[in-house]
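Sharing a chain and its predicted structure for anyone who wants a worked example. Both blocks are below, sequence first, tokens second.
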Amino acid sequence: MENIWAFLMQTLTASVAAVLLLIAKRLFLDKLSPRWQYGVWAILALRVLLPAGLLGRFLLPEGRMVLETTKLTVEANLSSTLTPPYTVTEVAAPIPLLRPVLPTSVTDWLFYLYAAGVILTLLWFLLTYAALRRKVVRGRTPAPEVTAQLERVAKEYGLKVPRRVVVMTEAESAFVCGPLSPVLVLPERAVDDKVLLHELLHLKYGDLWAGVGICLLRCLHWCNPLLWYCWNRAQNDSEALCDQRVLERLEGEQRREYGVILLSMAEDKYARAPGTTSMANGGRNIKDRIGAIARFKRYPRGVALGAGCVAVVLAVTCLTGTGGAVAVPEYDRRGSFAMTAALLNRPTTVAGALDTYAKAVLCNSSVYFAMVAPEEERTQAIQAVGEPFEEVDLYASPFSDLGYCWTRPAWQAEWSVMNLLPDGAGGYTGTLFFVPLEGDETKGVAVQQVAVRPEGEFWTVIPLGELESWVGFAETGVPRWLPLNLKTPGITYVGETDRLRIEVDLRMQLGIDRTVSTYRPELVGYLSGGWVEPAPRPSTPFTLMQDGFVLRVTEKQTGAAVEVPVELAFMSRSDDPERALSQPTYRYTLYPVGPDDYQVRESTGSCGGSDMTLTAMPEALAVAVEDREETYICVALPEEVVP
């Protein structure tokens, strides 16, 4: 936890889990054993120790939405050192992580106050334990008859006697002190065998260590009264479970006598300190324990299976939560809630980032631009979300020059990205294409150079140029799947061997299945392929891929072209295909070279008889050209963009 908002998210998540557990415990109070009643607190302990929002899952997504909106509203007017205002709150660790910086806002001071409270609460527990331990050290050795009584009880029930037993004047009842070197503390008055049995069972089952853990958890959430109440209940349940263990070892009248002994301790006082246990834990708690003794029964083994199933359901609910998906805001939404929804829907894939940016362009939506804006530009994008929404300026858009169809709220076009090339720094560059829908008679495309770059676990899109309109189509020689425009770009990869010069013109188009509605009355007879939904899909993968290339091989000395089989050269043409296949001079193998770009969906495009596996445009191509006698191998590097 690095700021006050991370702490609030953590403590609110733990509080929701606590409420669920309290309800469950109430429902199963008379139906499940004290072992279950005490054991389920381990779920709350794990929930406190696991960062909220782990793996993107939350117990209460609506509460997260409210918290993020509050944070955005508050931090927008502050200059906090610890809290970037326009980033999603993340809990890195369940403990406060202090940075050596000076606080500059009220939220910074609140977080430092919380951290100071953690330290002071921990010191208070340590000092309390140290003071009690000093008193225990001064305790007297018990009389021989008391030692003999203790050894007899331990032998009768198969338990161990602690190495040290003392009598302390201030003790009103027996208790055990110290998890590392436990000391059994006895009062000066006589102690019943059943009280000794109770404390020896605490030692056997390690309840001292559980108490230490509870104290540490109290420190982490010292200002949350609900969690303090729960930890009080947990310690009381520990005593109730120890009562159950005692009763299971007693018979008949002894059980009633144990209840009488417990009732006699209702007025005893004892300061609960970390690393101690005591049979006396306050009148109200003892009243509840007396009721549990009255209901005592040995639970059959079959109940354990049902109790385990209930515990598993509670654990899955409290520890995993839900996906926490918040709906993508509508294109014209404004205000803090819209901005929060945008920040919670930042793109997590390259395709999702490009889809979000494309929809922002088509809708002229500030809220969508904010979803993909890099951190240094997000402030400006968020400020635009606070301004009144303005409809698309039809006449100022390149889509208007192309004659694209526009129907509120977006221009009707589908996008794809051409030649997505790794930039060497974990991101990509490429050309974003907007093409008309099926049935649109528009003669052109709109293009823009963009960079897609990672920002933590999210992706941003940065325009590298203005959105331009390209008018005009190619007559022949362009594959059917490409935008039919003479300016469709590609990458030329060039390499040389000792004899040959090799050039590969490579083009690759990536896209996603567009979301369409099959019926829009105003578009009937105009667009046969439906219309584009304006909402982006920020986590979508690429689902469409097309690739193609032209291979040119020439001899270095003469410049003469080398013939290759037409089934291998995807875009080659021949007046006599049968002759070219029957008399091949060279064959070649072509494959990409570079890191595995796992961020872009790996696809395989079949190019005639050669398979080419691509993720993004490769950093280089390995080309092997072979004839009947020898093989020429080279690495072709990008040289230029070809029109």
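Comments welcome. The two ends are 52 Å apart (CA to CA).
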